[in-house]
Amino acid sequence: MSHESGQQPAIATYVKVWGLLFILAGCSYSVGFFGVQGPLRSILLVVLMLLQAGLIVSLLMHLVWERLALVFAIILPPTLLFTLIAIGALDGFSTLFTRNADFAPPATATPAAEHR
Amino acid sequence: MTQPAPTSSASATAVTAPQSLQSLLADVSSDQRLFKNVPWAKVMMWVFLLGDVFVFGSFLVGYMNVRLSTQAPWPHPTELFAVNVAGHSIPLFLVAIMTLVLTSSCGTMSLAVGYGYQRDRRRALLWLLITALMGASFVGMQAIEWTHLIVHEHVLPWGNPIGASQFGASFFLITGFHGTHVTIGVIFLLITALKVGRGDLENMRPGFMTGRKGGYEIVEIMSLYWHFVDLVWVFIFAVFYLW
Questions:
Q1: Is A38 touching B (CB cutoff 8 A)?
Q2: Do B42 and A69 meet the contact criterion of CB atoms below 8 Å apart?
């Protein structure tokens, strides 16, 4: 079969990954449900998010079975996004700093509470 | 072709690490095609998805930027999207069901790919249709969520009575763009299902638009798109709804 690249995993593999995805999504949801706060919340959310993303990309999207040339071509470009995240964060903090320095904070006594 | 059930993912990979590094160098240094034995349509789908990675990446970074820089209070999505069920306020109830449905559709999509490569036409068709149904119900639930937010909470893309107006702008942009992807995915799932159900892929019948003769790899290429849509939702769910 010339049109097929790499190996095809067994259907049982898909089902196992599926189950793991459910468990991880459930864990993500419980972080919100039980209201975990502070740095632990961020760490848990990022770790669970990356675990799910890794499972989907590597196994469901068959990346572990593809040729390394294709894997590198897919994985390397998105790492540039870390630069964008860093720039976005720097700019966000500096904008907030400037706003706090130059503008009065918005009225906190808006009818926000009644609207909930 | 279908391999016997792998005992672990490591044993299912075709080559060991040093060998594949050699193959990488050989591929890159060779004169002809870079991605050998990979269907061109699959490479093109990956190129498209890479573009989409940067679109969604830019949206999410933009969301992070406006959320970091606003002075107004950011609404708590866990409270905002809570639903009263039998007298209890359950946070993110509808969003949780949406996540459940989309994750489920990821599994059913993979089953369709697996049965497609086994040349089990009926089962591949069945799972493709179930996947499309789940995708459509996801979009439906998103419509309910948007209606609730617009009609009852009065959150709009250009204004937000319960805090930072950037919340409405980024929420409708990001979930709207994702919902558009799901909608287009459902349409293409139905087209793929039609091709599978009609037996086009066994007969290598040319497609109506490009005249390309597709085999069962088109189901796998469809699954790349669908898994990507779920992948994006994983990120949206974590950084927008839960953060």
A1: no
A2: no
Q: Copy the structure tokens of residue B84.
A: 């009263």
Task: Confirm if B146 and B92 have CB atoms less than 8 A apart.
Answer: no
A34 close contact with B: CB closer than 8 A:
no
CA distance B197 to chain A (A): 20
CA separation for the pair B34, B191 (Å, rounded): 30
Q: Are B134 and B229 in contact (CB under 8 A)?
A: no
Quick one: which of A8, A2, A20, A1 has its CA closest to A64? A8
**Distance between alpha carbon B63 and the CA centroid of its chain, in Å?**
20
Class (C level, CATH) for B40-242: mainly alpha
Cα–Cα distance between A14 and A20 in angstroms, integer? 10
pLDDT value of residue A1 = 36
ipTM summary value: 0.85
Rounded CA separation A73/A70 (Å): 5
Strand (E) or helix (H) holding B70: none
Q: Does A33 touch chain B (CB under 8 A)?
A: yes
Name chain B contacts of A116, Cβ cutoff 8 Å: 79-80, 162
Q: What residues form DSSP beta bridges with B89?
A: B84
Q: Which amino acid is at A29?
A: Y
Mark yes or no for CB contact A8/B2 under 8 Å: yes
pLDDT in tens, A10-59: 889 999 999 999 999 999 999 988 888 889 999 999 999 999 999 999 99
pLDDT tens figures, B123-142: 999 999 999 999 999 999 99
Tell me the CA distances in angstroms from B194 to A30, B12, B128, B199, B222, one per residue in order. Answer: 39, 32, 10, 8, 13
The backbone region for A71, taken as left when phi is positive above 0, alpha when psi lies in -120 to 50, beta otherwise, is alpha
Tokens representing B239 are 């950084």
